[in-house]
Q: What sequence folds into this?
């Protein structure tokens, strides 16, 4: 494990794409992320967390990104900087999942996507 990774450099790996702050579900080998629905503390304009310093006390759903989550968490997409870091170090063990974006409010799933809608 990277001995030079202090808390600050670890947190700075985040590219602030905001995808982990959206509603998401795993459906078989697919990770579905709803681009129209997000954590109450997420600002979609800036893609920033509005309670970043207190996020773990403000939100009981917010999960700290740890080495283990980078290695095993299935809810982060392959594009996440932490998943990439783990993969680059050959320690990404979560199964590969296809990423699918949906827009539940502006473009709701049609009949053929009902199973996806039910996952949220
Ligand atoms: S509380 Fe957590 S999940 Fe919510 S916006 Fe902030 S970082 Fe994202
Ligand atoms: S998905 Fe990864 S890179 Fe994107 S905001 Fe979340 S932790 Fe940061």
A:
């Amino acid at each position: 494990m990277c001995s030079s990774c202090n808390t600050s450099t670890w947190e700075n790996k985040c590219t602030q794409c905001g995808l982990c702050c959206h509603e998401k579900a795993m459906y078989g080998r697919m990770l579905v992320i709803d681009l129209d629905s997000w954590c109450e503390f997420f600002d979609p304009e800036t893609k920033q967390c509005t309670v970043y310093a207190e996020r773990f006390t403000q939100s009981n759903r917010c999960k700290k990104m740890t080495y283990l989550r980078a290695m095993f968490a299935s809810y982060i997409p392959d594009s996440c900087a932490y998943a990439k870091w783990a993969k680059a170090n050959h320690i990404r063990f979560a199964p590969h999942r296809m990423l699918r974006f949906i827009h539940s409010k502006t473009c709701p799933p049609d009949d053929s996507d009902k199973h996806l809608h039910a996952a949220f």
Q: What stands out?
A: The longest strand covers residues 30-38.
